[in-house]
Automatic annotation (TrEMBL):
<protein>
    <submittedName>
        <fullName>Nitrate reductase</fullName>
    </submittedName>
</protein>
<dbReference type="InterPro" id="IPR041854">
    <property type="entry name" value="BFD-like_2Fe2S-bd_dom_sf"/>
</dbReference>
<keyword id="KW-0479">Metal-binding</keyword>
<dbReference type="InterPro" id="IPR041957">
    <property type="entry name" value="CT_Nitrate-R-NapA-like"/>
</dbReference>
<dbReference type="InterPro" id="IPR050123">
    <property type="entry name" value="Prok_molybdopt-oxidoreductase"/>
</dbReference>
<dbReference type="GO" id="GO:1990204">
    <property type="term" value="C:oxidoreductase complex"/>
</dbReference>
<dbReference type="Pfam" id="PF01568">
    <property type="entry name" value="Molydop_binding"/>
</dbReference>
<dbReference type="Pfam" id="PF04324">
    <property type="entry name" value="Fer2_BFD"/>
</dbReference>
<dbReference type="InterPro" id="IPR006656">
    <property type="entry name" value="Mopterin_OxRdtase"/>
</dbReference>
<dbReference type="InterPro" id="IPR006963">
    <property type="entry name" value="Mopterin_OxRdtase_4Fe-4S_dom"/>
</dbReference>
<keyword id="KW-0408">Iron</keyword>
<dbReference type="InterPro" id="IPR009010">
    <property type="entry name" value="Asp_de-COase-like_dom_sf"/>
</dbReference>
<dbReference type="InterPro" id="IPR007419">
    <property type="entry name" value="BFD-like_2Fe2S-bd_dom"/>
</dbReference>
<feature type="domain" description="4Fe-4S Mo/W bis-MGD-type">
    <location>
        <begin position="1"/>
        <end position="57"/>
    </location>
</feature>
<keyword id="KW-0534">Nitrate assimilation</keyword>
<dbReference type="Pfam" id="PF04879">
    <property type="entry name" value="Molybdop_Fe4S4"/>
</dbReference>
<comment type="similarity">
    <text>Belongs to the prokaryotic molybdopterin-containing oxidoreductase family. NasA/NapA/NarB subfamily.</text>
</comment>
Length: 882
């Protein structure tokens, strides 16, 4: 089979992938050496794509009210209910909630249907939770939503400031490009600004562990300092900007003392950062969710941009503010106008001339004149009945929106919910009246745009399974059934052609987004389309950077400084809720785990939901490592494993966003998060929720491995993950069961003829069971009154093995024994290398990441774990020295 060139469906780096179908539903995956985003590299998630292609959990046919249905029936139901709702209650009574994970073609059709034909603007997307503060900040400063720079800027610069970005885990291949550039040019400096120490801060020359939510003060202080020190580019400011005086007036309060007070940082480290920034001409400031997901998110963005405008460091090689996007097509969604307050092709909904332009182009009967509801308000409108029919596509709001229990309540009372997804069971699909099966990555056909404005093709290399259909096709078929013309494209190429033509329609250089060069692309051209940067107007070559000429897209073509007075986060800690909950991502999982959660390799890095806490706070609360903690806010609660680490600052805890009701008993972190939003962008404050932690007084803890899926019903705590050859399960209960064997039967259901070996130590509350079927280990259950201490990696490795008498005894003793060392928690997921193995290699003399790689292979494939290996080497050597 020949390899198909496509693009990774995870993060906004947008790596090129070579996929070679194996003819049996799977594919061999490799990085595309010719793709300009990654030049052949892939991270742990990208490398494991081949393991996520199985069909066992896929949604393969439409379902209407719990019953399998034909497409004809399902589409008729959707079209009729939407049409009836609009007839009876007006166009504002229906809504779409879509995603930065659909392709540009899907997104274009959704937006055209809602804004051009239904005639309302109630289409919003999970990008509201992700990029909307950056969009709003860009528009305030530049007049348009424009990312000025490219990935090369991170390699060509002398100073990279990473603020609110865990690039090492969230944009791993871009991080590797940065790390390689720094290794080649050691004079390059990296500063990280994040309340936590992360894998990214391992690369930093300076780490500023600022107080959560205080970035505006830090950057306003920087602006004030740069101006006072005469570091401004006077010619650039005079010719190409406006509003500096007001911005400086707002920043005046932030002398070094005030910055230190608000950020909690030392004066020395603040001075050091300001000096580096002032004295380095080539600076790139990279930012992500620590900036965007804040009730001051838009101000944070503008405070950063202000510093670049003052110094004229924008649009030139190695210089500029750089918002890195999260989802694979966050940028494409912005290009088609997928947010409720945009139109299409970077045109404005509030501008009558823009509306006329789009209406003329679409030949549409009506256009909304007002922005629609933003995500949080949209679900509030579902809750109070204003929105009566909702179509959710490629996102899991029951788990990912703030105040998630209110979201599920809204979904439960909504008269009509349509969900298009690729998997059967999600926390959201539970509430669907109609479930529509979508084609997934590997089957889909279209384009995505990455963080640096590069448009790449996603190409199919597998046939659509079952009755799955493309998302854009589902939308177009409903539109046609509702009687709307203009939705009859033959293929995705036709949609892209129309999108490209609209971008050039009446443009003449007045708008940044113009890909008119592709307005007449044919199917063959589309199939052969190589990755390109926008803009590319008709007759021109693609342009890599914006704004080097100092011309922006405001009416006077000048960039605007924005005054950004500091505002504290919306939530208040203290009293019953003394800690701040910060939320985010881990290296090997993608969002709500519907795809990355399928592979044993990716779940081995972290196998259960957890909360990170500083040792001081843990001691104060009586929490020990491996305890379970009930984390509560005024909105909701979660039950999570405690991870004690000094990398977490005192007073704040961190929990990942990934686990849902599909993998664990009570782990949806957004059930806790209050729906406070930024007043400009509407983006929720996902990183600052006042919470309390209490020890979960479990009377029983357990760990199980099994070749079959365990039954978890009725357990007070459970977390289930795939493991090589089966499943792994963590469990806990408030009360130890009277009959441990009954628990074994309920959870692992040993087959009638199975041989069950048991061990117990009543005084310590220990029960251990090993179940053998046909002589091989079928399942094992370890119960104890304390958190179970056992060599988990080793135990998983025994699953499906034939064990002799001595080995069986050792298994029940829960110890690996001489013959089989326990790898420990997995660090390198490509080669399944754990902490214990790395520590042993370091003791054996391997004292660099390269040396560890040479003896264990760890870190030598995708490289995503290299920062963690480096940290383990440092820790082991410090322990030896001590
Ligand atoms: N492995 C993995 N990679 C991903 C994803 C994934 O699910 N898994 N998702 C993708 C998506 S959609 C997105 S949006 C990106 C997100 O990428 P990132 O934004 O890099 O990831 P997060 O972990 O959400 O948050 C980044 C950091 O912000 C810090 N932070 C919290 N509060 C503050 C603050 O007040 N100020 C500052 N300066 N920092 C703060 C957090 O401690 C955290 O380390 O990742 C993308 N890449
Ligand atoms: N507390 C807190 N909350 C957060 C965040 C945070 O940092 N903290 N981050 C926010 C951010 S930045 C983001 S981006 C969101 C992400 O949150 P979500 O978008 O809700 O998360 P996903 O798991 O990516 O959901 C995608 C869904 O689409 C399905 N899917 C995948 N491919 C396709 C396809 O081609 N077509 C269709 N129809 N379905 C598909 C998947 O199976 C899955 O069910 O979470 C947000 N929520
Ligand atoms: S960095 Fe990893 S997740 Fe992101 S696009 Fe590249 S391979 Fe995919
Ligand atoms: Mo995101």
């Amino acid at each position: 089979m020949t390899a198909v060139r496509t693009t990774c469906p995870y993060c906004g780096v947008g790596c090129g992938v070579l996929a070679r179908a194996d003819g049996a539903g799977g594919a061999a995956i490799a990085g595309d050496p010719d793709h300009p985003a990654n030049f052949g590299r892939l991270c742990s998630k990208g490398s494991a794509l081949g393991e996520t292609l199985s069909l066992d959990d896929r949604l393969l046919h439409p379902v209407v009210r719990g019953v399998r249905a034909t497409w004809d029936r399902a589409l008729a139901e959707v079209a009729r209910t939407f049409a009836d709702t609009i007839r009876d209650h007006g166009p504002e009574a229906v809504a779409f909630y879509v995603s930065g994970q659909i392709l540009t073609e899907d997104y274009y059709v959704a937006n055209k249907l809602m804004k051009g034909f239904i005639g309302a603007a109630n289409i919003d997307t999970n990008s509201r939770l992700c990029m909307s503060s950056s969009v709003a900040g860009h528009k305030r400063a530049f007049g348009t939503d424009t990312v000025p720079g490219t990935y090369e800027d991170l390699e060509q610069t002398d100073l990279v400031v990473l603020t609110g970005s865990n690039l090492a885990w969230c944009h791993p291949v871009l991080f590797q490009r940065l790390a390689a550039a720094k290794a080649a040019r050691p004079g390059m400096r990296v500063v990280t600004i994040d309340p936590r120490r992360t894998a990214t801060s391992e690369l930093a020359d300076l780490h500023l562990g600022l107080a959560p939510g205080s970035d505006v003060a830090l950057f306003a202080g920087l602006l004030r300092r740069l101006a006072a020190a005469g570091r401004g580019d006077a010619a650039f400011i005079a010719r190409h900007t406006s509003g500096l005086d007001a911005a400086l007036a707002a920043a005046a309060a932030f002398d070094i003392g005030a910055v230190a007070r608000v950020t909690g940082l030392g004066r020395g480290e603040i001075e050091q950062f300001y000096r580096l920034f002032a004295e380095t001409e080539r600076v790139v400031t990279v930012y992500s969710q620590g900036v965007n997901q804040s009730s001051a998110g838009t101000d944070k963005v503008n405070a950063i941009i202000n510093a670049h405008l003052l110094t004229g460091r924008i649009g030139r090689p190695g210089m500029g503010p750089f918002s890195v996007t999260g989802q694979p097509n966050a940028m494409g969604g912005r290009e088609v106008g997928g947010l409720a307050n945009q139109l299409a092709a970077h045109l404005e909904i509030g501008d009558p001339a823009h509306r006329a332009l789009v209406q003329d182009f679409w030949q549409s009967p009506q256009m909304p004149t007002q922005p629609g509801l933003k995500a949080v308000d949209l679900f509030e409108a579902v809750h109070d009945g204003r929105v009566k029919a909702l179509w959710i596509m490629a996102t899991n709001p029951a788990a990912s929106l703030p105040d998630a229990d209110r979201v599920t309540a809204a979904l439960a009372r909504c008269p009509f919910v349509v969900v298009s997804d690729v998997v059967q069971a999600t926390d959201t699909s539970r509430y669907a009246h109609v479930l529509l099966p979508s084609t997934a990555w590997g089957e889909k056909d279209g384009t995505v745009t990455n963080s640096e404005r590069r448009i790449s093709r996603q190409r199919p290399f597998l046939p659509p399974p079952g009755e799955t259909r493309h998302d854009w096709r589902q939308l177009a078929e409903v539109a046609t059934r509702m009687g709307f013309p203009g939705f009859d494209w033959p293929d995705a190429a036709g949609v892209f052609r129309e999108h490209a033509a609209l971008s050039a329609h009446g443009n003449h250089g007045t708008r940044d987004f113009d890909i008119g060069a592709h307005a007449a692309i044919d199917r063959a051209g589309y199939d052969a389309l190589a990755p390109f940067h926008w803009p590319q107007p008709a007759g021109e070559a693609p342009r890599a950077r914006f704004f080097a000429d100092g011309r922006f897209y405001t009416p006077d073509r000048k960039a605007r400084f924005v005054a950004t007075p500091y505002r504290a986060p919306a939530g208040r800690t203290g009293g019953a809720r003394p800690l701040i909950l910060n939320t985010g991502r881990v290296r090997d999982q993608w969002h709500t785990m519907t795809r990355t959660g399928k592979t044993a390799r990716l779940t081995s890095h972290y196998a259960e939901p957890f909360v990170e806490i500083n040792p001081l706070d843990a001691r104060h609360l009586g929490l020990a490592a491996a305890d379970l903690a009930l984390v509560e806010s005024d909105r909701g609660r979660a039950l999570l494993r405690v991870l004690v680490t000094a990398r977490q600052r005192p007073g704040s805890v961190f929990a990942p966003i990934h686990w849902t009701g599909q993998q664990a008993s009570q782990s949806r972190i957004d059930a806790l998060v209050a729906p406070h939003v930024d007043p400009v962008s509407g983006q929720p404050e996902s990183k600052f929720t006042p919470v309390s932690l209490t020890r979960f007084a479990a009377g029983l803890y357990g760990f199980a491995v099994s070749r079959r899926r365990p039954a978890v019903e009725g357990l007070d705590y459970w977390a289930l993950a795939p493991a090589a050859g089966g499943f792994r399960l963590e469990l806990a209960a408030l009360q130890a069961p009277a009959d441990a064997a009954a628990l074994l039967a309920a959870v692992l259901a040993p087959a009638a003829g199975a041989e069950v070996l048991a061990y117990r130590d009543v005084t310590r509350g220990i029960h251990r069971f090993a179940v053998f079927a046909d002589g091989i280990l079928d399942a094992a259950l370890f119960l104890a009154a304390e958190p179970v201490e056992t060599a988990r990696g080793w135990l998983i490795g025994q699953l499906g093995q034939a064990l002799d008498g001595a080995e069986r005894l050792r298994l029940l003793a829960g110890r690996a024994g001489a013959g089989g060392a326990d790898p420990g928690a997995i660090v390198c997921s490509c080669f399944s290398v754990g902490v214990n193995q790395i520590a042993a290699a370091v003791r054996g003399g391997a004292c660099t990441v390269e040396a560890v790689g040479a003896c264990l292979k760890a870190g030598t494939n995708c490289g995503s774990c290299r920062m963690e290996i480096g940290r383990l080497i440092d820790a082991s050597r410090a322990a030896e020295a001590g």
